[in-house]
Amino acid sequence: MKKLVAAWVATAVAATGAAVAVLLLLGNGLTGTDSHVLGPSEVRAALATATTRAAAPSRAPSPAPAGQDRLIRSAGGTVIASCEGDLVTLRSWSPAQDWSVDEVESGPAREAKVEFEPDDGDELELTILCRAGVPVTQ
Questions:
Q1: Is residue 4 assigned to a domain?
Q2: Within a domain: residue 11?
Q3: Domain range for residue 65?
């Protein structure tokens, strides 16, 4: 019986070792992703770019090509909308933490709406329309 257990343990250790060795040899080939770790300066540059794009106020129209998606933030959540002429379409919407989506009118229409509802308190309704080809909140 002891020989059987020892043989089983030896087989399990060998199989585990072989599996680890194969995964190490495959490396990125298994998932197809690059495992490059960003350095501090690369992280700062990426965050600065993301912050600059996200910091634009949602009510201020800015020149944008027709059909370009725009992120609109609110206390209740975020919405991605785009304009095609005077018609707005909500591409996606995501509630903030402790909020949920109550109702959506995604368009395309002159106005699109999404209602965010908190766990406690009053709901928040975002009405989005196109001004100069750019989605803005009303």
A1: no
A2: no
A3: 61-137
pLDDT band, very low/low/confident/very high, at 92 (cuts 50, 70, 90):
very high
- pLDDT higher than threshold 50 for residue 61: no
> Hey, how many other C-beta atoms are within 10 angstroms of the C-beta on 89?
19
Which pLDDT belongs to residue 57? Answer: 46
Number of domains the chain is built from: 1
Question: Does the global pTM surpass 0.85?
Answer: no
Q: How far apart are CA 121 and CA 30, in angstroms?
A: 48
